[in-house]
Write a structure and sequence with these properties.
Layout lengths: L1 H5 L6 E2 L13 E4 L13 E5 L8 H13 L4 E5 L9 H10 L3 E4 L5 H32 L6 H12 L2 E7 L5 E4 L5 H14 L3 H6 L15 E2 L3 E4 L4 E8 L6 E7 L5 H43 L16 H7 L8 E8 L3 H14 L6 E6 L2 E7 L5 H9 L3 E5 L9 H17 L9 E3 L5 H6 L4 H13 L7 H10 L4 H8 L3 H15 L6 H11 L6
Parallel strand pairs: 2-3, 3-4, 4-5, 15-16
Antiparallel strand pairs: 1-5, 6-7, 6-11, 8-10, 9-10, 10-11, 12-14, 12-15, 13-14
Helix pairs in contact: 2-3, 4-5, 4-8, 5-8, 14-18, 15-16, 15-18, 16-17
């Protein structure tokens, strides 16, 4: 009320003596000239009148004041020089008795001006709060454009609330992102609360952590109500964020000691807005990861010469080098082609390798794919750190053949052949003779080096034609392969096949007779060795 009377442009003047009434809050203003006006007023409003019905009626003047006071009206504004030159004495006396503030309104001031001033004064704090909220939302939305939108949003939300903020996976308790002011002790408290909320679906349902039943479309991101909890540092809030195709997450906040009441007014709507944005960001990140994996698979096949580039009709293909750059392979340090044979099943190795890459925070740039039973990867790392980096990346999931270093995209097809040939030698070397499960091309044999110089598909065709001549005689291929792999030792070859050495000699004799194979001729043995050498399937 005090602000209304103090506005110079309105020219209002208080005519009652009780100054304490000026502290009364005002929630609206309106004019009237009818009887029983409080039917249309709310408490704490200002009533404005010209006194049209009050002229010469002192009893009605007193009754009006009683009615306005009983209804909780904040003040009565009386217009001068319209129907009265001054406030009627009876009305003024009743107002003094009941403590109802009465002020005069000069002829030059319209009631509409007073009403507009009151409405604007009431709206200003809400407008300011709305502006702050919209500005904060824009600030959070802008984080969606960053390379890591989830982490950026958590970091931006913390000072806005203000609070220590963390996004935690509901089932595993894994911390997806946390603000800098979320220390280890506080994070442990938050995770304990999350674990208590998420041990079973029944408990989650009881505590509001499941997707609401009223959410009709399961493909839309979902939220549940805010849950309050107490942490050692202060009050906490937790919100379950439910992306459509990802595990449920918890957005947890613990108020910091410098939190103010004005900031807390923005906290609840901002937390809900951030929850919706995080659900979208998490879903978008899943889509981006799936798109990146598709790009990796296609690019690995193309640059290694496994498959020709496929371009939609009418759309030129981006240069391979540009696409490699976009995935982190920029040849600022050497790149290596790596071929890996899974030590377990291919499906398990692919799953475990994907999970392993996610746990290594600063692994070197790598793109990869499983082609049949072989993992093919391009890894960019320094020459000295390469062996250690490979062991960290693969986690003993694969036996690895590694190419020579590549300094440009043009060298990748040849490097792929080198890695495949190295892996082939590794797989055909008796396990006891292998110093490790990694064979660098520079350490491979001369035979492997020669095989890497030709297109593997052409080599496979040549091998198949040579092997076709040996299929007439039963056991011919297995007998010769065991004989060659055991360094022409009949006893070892027989043991490998589980037969008697004499049976091994008989088989070799039959192969010599049937196919004219001269086992005493070194050139013939080399030819057979190359023809029967097993290459990893692509």
């Amino acid at each position: 009320m005090k602000e209304v009377l103090a506005q110079p442009s309105l020219g209002l003047r208080l005519v009652t003596s009780d100054q304490s009434a000026l502290a009364t809050s005002v929630t609206g203003a309106h004019s009237f000239e009818i009887s029983r006006p409080t039917r249309w007023f709310s408490a704490h409003w200002i009533a404005l009148t010209t006194g049209l019905r009050l002229k010469g009626r002192p009893a009605e003047q007193r009754e009006l004041v009683k009615e306005l006071h009983s209804a909780g009206i904040a003040a009565l504004g009386f217009a001068l020089d319209v129907n009265f030159r001054a406030v009627p004495p009876g009305l003024l006396e009743a107002a003094e008795e009941l403590g109802l503030p009465v002020f005069t309104v000069p002829f030059a001031t319209g009631f509409a001006e007073i009403i507009a001033f009151v409405n604007q004064a009431l709206l200003s704090p809400n407008v300011n709060a709305l502006r702050r909220f919209v500005s904060a939302q824009d600030y959070l939305l802008d984080s969606l454009l960053s390379p890591d939108p989830v982490t950026a949003m958590i970091e931006r939300l913390a000072p806005l609330v203000p609070a220590a903020v963390a996004l935690i996976e509901g089932g595993s308790g894994e911390v997806v992102a946390a603000s800098d002011n979320m220390d280890a002790g506080l994070l442990a408290e938050v995770r304990e609360f999350i674990e208590y909320q998420s041990p079973s679906s029944a408990n989650m349902q009881g505590r509001g952590a499941r997707r609401p039943a009223e959410q009709a479309d399961p493909s839309l991101p979902g939220l549940t109500q805010l849950i309050e909890f107490e942490a050692g540092q202060g009050p906490g809030l937790a919100l379950a964020v439910l992306p459509p195709s990802r595990p449920s997450m918890w957005l947890a906040l613990v108020g910091t000691t410098d939190s103010g009441e004005s900031d807390f007014q923005l906290a609840l709507p901002l937390v809900r807005s951030a929850g919706h944005m995080l659900a979208i960001a998490l879903e978008t990140r899943s889509d981006r990861l799936a798109e990146r994996r598709a790009q990796e698979r296609a690019l690995v096949a193309e640059v290694c010469g496994l498959r020709a580039a496929r371009t939609p009709a009418g759309r030129p293909a981006k240069p391979q080098l540009e696409r490699l750059f976009s995935l982190g392979i920029d040849f600022s340090s050497p790149a290596w082609v790596v071929c890996g044979s899974p030590m377990a099943s291919a499906a398990e190795a692919e799953r475990d390798f994907s999970a392993l890459l996610e746990t290594i925070e600063e692994h070197p740039p790598v793109i990869w794919d499983m082609t049949g039973e072989v993992m093919v990867a391009i890894v960019q790392t320094g020459t000295e750190t390469m062996p250690d980096q490979l062991r960290q990346l693969t986690g003993n999931l694969f036996r690895l053949g590694v190419s020579s270093p590549c300094l440009g995209a043009a060298a990748l097809p040849a490097a792929y052949r080198e890695a495949r040939a190295s892996l082939g030698e590794l797989l055909t070397t008796p396990h006891g003779d292998q110093p490790s499960d990694v064979l660098l091309f520079e350490d491979a044999s001369m035979t492997t080096w020669l095989m890497a110089q030709v297109d593997l598909r052409k080599l496979a065709e040549k091998q198949e034609r040579r092997r076709a001549n040996l299929t007439v005689e039963r056991h011919a291929i297995t007998t010769l392969r065991a004989y060659l792999e055991c360094n022409l030792d009949i006893n070892l070859a027989a043991a490998k096949l589980g037969i008697h050495p004499n049976s091994m000699r008989y088989r070799l004799h039959k192969v010599r007779e049937s196919h004219g194979v001269r086992l005493e001729d070194f050139a013939e043995l080399v030819d057979l060795y190359l023809a029967l050498k097993i290459l990893p399937r692509s």
